[in-house]
Design goal:
Elements lengths: L1 H20 L2 E9 L2 E8 L5 E10 L6 E2 L5 E2 L5 E6 L9 E10 L4 E10 L5 H12 L2
Length: about 140
């Protein structure tokens, strides 16, 4: 009897893991001068009500939320979040976590993407424009 319960428990874990892993079909992050564009695509959004975005920078050990509301579902299942708060400091390596959330607020699944952000500061951009005027 105990052996059967163990096998059943393992099968439930494997089945749950398989279902959770099937939500995202892809994700990427793109560095642009105005911010980091985090894009993701979903295959199956059954039970999902929205997405939360978290970020960690440099050698940080945990992800922190970077938005107060959830990204709502879209009919085309293609999403984009623009992080305008990622500024180049000593840390220019960022990791993002996109979390699919159910109606109870629980994480259904997540996908992580990493990027090196080489933004140009507004001071450098302005100085470059001034120099260009005198060439």
């Amino acid at each position: 009897m105990t052996k059967h319960l163990f096998v059943l428990a393992v099968l439930c874990i494997v089945a749950t893991t398989s279902v959770l892993a099937a939500i995202f079909s892809g994700a990427q992050a793109i560095s642009r001068p105005d911010g980091i564009y985090v894009q993701w695509w979903a295959d199956d959004e059954s039970g999902v009500v929205g997405y939360r975005i978290q970020r960690k920078a440099g050698a940080a050990t945990q992800f922190d939320p970077i938005m107060t509301s959830m990204v709502p579902l879209r009919a085309d299942k293609a999403y984009e979040y623009i992080d305008l708060t990622a500024f180049k400091t000593t840390d220019n390596f960022y990791q993002y976590r996109v979390i699919a959330v159910d109606n109870r607020g629980n994480e259904v699944s997540h996908v992580d993407v990493s990027i090196i952000h080489n933004s140009v500061s507004s001071v450098r951009r302005t100085w470059g424009s001034i120099k260009a005027m005198f060439r």
